Amino acid sequence: MKKLSVRRTLVPLLFIALGGACNLNFAWAQDTRDAEIFGEPAATAESSPPPQAPIAAGLPSLLDTLQVGGRAELRASTAQEEKQKISDAAFERLKTADLYFDARPNEDIRAFLRFRLSESTGGRPPAGRVAGMGAQQEASRQDLRTELDELWFKWNVADSLFFTVGKQHLKWGSGRFWNPTDFTASETRDPFALFDRRLGQTLVKMHFPVEKQGFNYYAIAQLNDVNKNEDVGGALRGEFAFLGAGELALSFQTRRAQPLKFGVDVSSAVGPVDVHVETAVSRGQKRTFYRGTLDPATGRLPEAYSAEKRWFTQSVVGIDKTWQYSDEDSFSLGAEYLFNELGYQDKELEIYAFLLGQSKPLYAGRHYAAAYVRVPGPGSWNKTSFFLNSVQNISDATNVTRLTATWTLFNELTLEAYGSRCFGDAGELCFRLPAEYATAANAPGVPSDQRNALAALPTSRTLVTAGLGASVEF
Prior knowledge:
With 474 residues, the chain is mostly beta strands. It has six helices and 21 strands.
């Protein structure tokens, strides 16, 4: 992200304000500088000016060590359900501004602040459209938010051990669509979005690099959702370069009331392609699992059970390749497969667990596949790029495919347009609640919370979503 010097933008306003507030005599200041340069005699006691205000004295130092930047974005989106007129489709507007302050008082310490202002207006398109889990369209509303994205301090000890303390961004794993070893993440990343909108996590990060060998060691204390000392989580990670083009990473996490996790992540060039493999194993899952059948006619529900002593595996395998088709042009292709032992092979059990909050988006099924095509600046369209992404839940036979195009105007303004379509029926990525399930919600023996949850779900698929956006980084 480009940074804008405070000196260039704020100096005039700051001096005007300080001139009025501190009653500075600029003519005297100029005379003083002349005296320092040409050796003129100092002013007499009668003509000596008042001492310089502390704020003004520290202003040059502040301007030399502080940078300001950010990102502003305007978006509009719509989502159309099957058999719905386009004029009746939900429409939403989103305005977002990220602003950051990056201060470096000296070479050994850095302070960083980024906050987000957002306003969302209009009828909300069905919620969770990335994972295909729709919710009924809401009435027109306006949401105003101010969120703290990052606030951290960073320093080092003898240029060897680096500490970062506070709310910060951290991503582990080499997968493009799935990252089972991203242990510190609290939300699933949207694989279709060009900009990751997730907020930072409150962490204490210690980093010990060994540059000669290309190794990195990390120790993490997780402070999100901590009410007692025993709630603090811990994670370790080691990254090891090998063969000049590969990297091996080993990860570990432990936290009260959460599973114990181990991770392995390997990425390397293999001939003309890049290959990555990411695997996580966990034990002590606190979530509820389900087995059996769901019979809407009789109101029979799946059996709930616990599997805290069982080890579960999640593995991602992916390949990427870039082709150069002219002196200046190229395009990239990639594909990934996810085996998710925490998910379900049976569609009914998968959706049942997801609706009850016992599965995460894009991790509800047992098997997934995804592919992408990236074409930046084809031919003479140097300021235009195209992205095609497709995600398939193999277990329930649903799919979402999205095409995105971006244009850069005036070297600074990025325009974006996208359209997506879901395929399949009554699954995670193309969801609707079958009529027989809606009827079963009123069957005897169905808990009230489950009855209300089923009644709130849409009975039509959200087939098409589309949107436009404009963003500027400064």
